[in-house]
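Progress note, sequence design subtask.
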């Protein structure tokens, strides 16, 4: 591995030795530091844990995977003054970091590209900006039963194929980007703090509301912002197979949706049922469904449709077209 500190570059036989040199530089130099760690070949130190700890010193730490694979037992980025950037400058941008990553104590992480094969965790006021990359394990934004105030993550691109991207009460998650793909987004509100989730893009295989205080009545309260529906940024909507998707406030699972601007034209070529609705106030509304079962489910007086029942009282006439 190659370490550059303040313009001076030196090579080390192992990543552990390179990290030790970085630690010594941070401890010795009173000035702000710019540090680059470039991986020169595949590294397997499966029993090793590495830490970049800037404490309150301002440290700019850039790690270049350089097309290589790094295997370890843990990488910790910690300290209020630490701003870390992970990227791969190689032509293929296919470098892989195979070690658990923890961002702690108000440190900041930016990921530009690369592959990440173990869990990524944010805690203690840490922040993250994930611009790209492929993530094959879980991402945890905050922790359960903790005060996660100040923890935030912004996702603007990348593929997240792991078990979950999970945000806890008190922490914040913002997702945008037409090419962002998340397999499972889990929202876990705590008793005292709400998880702040804002969606203005992305494609999701599953969105689940894992926990929230109270009962379904609390989900119906728009001011509490506990419902999946409340995650949408102003001017955006859920679309499924090209069709705008309405969900009830008590819905706890949403499958196979994209978040798009609400004025995006619908692609109704796959729809099999159309509702043409005339309201009591003279306004009209159109809803499309991909299956007959989905259309009939929308009309059922079930618990999940409690919010819809209020909507139905405003309907004067319904035409069902096949």
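Output:
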């Amino acid at each position: 591995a190659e370490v550059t500190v303040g313009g001076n570059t030196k090579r080390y036989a192992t990543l552990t030795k390179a990290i030790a040199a970085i630690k010594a530089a941070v401890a010795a130099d009173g000035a702000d530091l710019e540090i680059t760690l470039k991986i020169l070949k595949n590294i397997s130190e499966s029993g090793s844990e590495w830490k970049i700890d800037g404490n309150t010193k301002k440290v700019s730490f850039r790690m270049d995977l350089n097309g290589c694979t790094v295997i370890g037992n843990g990488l910790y980025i910690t300290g209020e003054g630490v701003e870390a950037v992970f990227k791969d400058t190689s032509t293929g941008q296919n470098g892989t970091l195979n070690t658990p990553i923890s961002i702690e104590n108000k440190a900041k992480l930016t990921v530009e590209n690369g592959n990440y094969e173990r869990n990524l965790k944010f805690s203690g006021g840490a922040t993250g900006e994930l611009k790209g990359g492929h993530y094959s394990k879980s991402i945890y934004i905050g922790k359960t039963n903790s005060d996660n105030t100040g923890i935030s993550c912004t996702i603007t691109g990348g593929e997240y194929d792991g078990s979950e991207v999970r945000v806890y009460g008190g922490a914040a998650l913002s997702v945008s980007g037409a090419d962002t793909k998340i397999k499972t987004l889990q929202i876990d509100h705590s008793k005292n703090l709400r998880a702040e989730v804002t969606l203005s893009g992305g494609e999701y295989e599953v969105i689940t509301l894992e926990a929230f205080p109270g009962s379904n009545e609390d989900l119906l309260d728009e001011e509490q912002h506990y419902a999946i529906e409340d995650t949408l940024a102003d001017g955006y909507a859920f679309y499924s197979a090209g069709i705008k998707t309405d969900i009830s406030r008590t819905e706890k699972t949403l499958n196979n949706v994209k978040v798009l601007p609400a004025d995006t034209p619908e692609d109704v070529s796959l729809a099999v049922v159309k509702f043409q609705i005339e309201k009591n106030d003279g306004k009209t509304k159109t809803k499309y469904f991909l299956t007959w079962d989905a259309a009939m489910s929308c009309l059922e007086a079930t618990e999940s449709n409690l919010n819809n029942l209020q909507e139905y009282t405003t309907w004067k006439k319904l035409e069902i077209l096949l």
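The helical segments are 15-28, 216-220, 292-299, 306-312. Work on this subtask will continue into the next period as scheduled.
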